[in-house]
Amino acid sequence: MKNILITGGCGFVGTNLFLRLEQMPFNITILDNFSSKSNYIHESRNHKIIKGDIRNEYDVQRALKNIDVV
After folding, report:
1. What is the pTM of this model?
2. Can you tell me the distance from the alpha carbon of 33 to that of 52, in angstroms, rounded to the nearest whole number?
3. Strand order in the sheet with 2-7
4. Which residues are 49's β-sheet partners?
5. Sign for the pseudo-dihedral over CA of 18, 28, 38, 44
6. Which residues pair with 4 in a beta bridge?
7. How many Å apart are CA 6 and CA 16, to the nearest integer?
C-alpha cells in the first residue's frame, strides 16, 4: 500500500483530493498549517494529520517520513 502526503490537505483543493484518494487503498498523511481555519478531515486509521507548514523544513522532513508520493 502506497504512502501519500497531501500538503495543504485541509484546504479546498487538498480536501477534495483527499476525498478522492481515501476511496483507494492508500495510507494518507496530510500536512497543513490550518490557516484557512476549516478542517473537514478528521484522523482515522488509514490517514493522519500533521500540523505544520510546508515552508518549515523541520515540518516537511517530519511529514515526508516513509512517504512514497507527494
Report:
1. 0.85
2. 5
3. 2-7, 26-32, 47-51
4. 30
5. positive
6. 28, 69
7. 11
Strand bridging mode 26-32 / 2-7: parallel
Residue-by-residue pLDDT tens, the chain, 70 positions = 899 999 998 888 888 899 899 899 999 999 999 887 666 666 566 688 899 999 999 999 999 999 999 9
CB 32 within 8 A of CB 49: yes
**β-strands 2-7, 47-51: how paired?**
unpaired
Name the nearest CA neighbour of 9 among 19, 68, 1: 19
Pure H helices in the chain = 12-21, 57-63
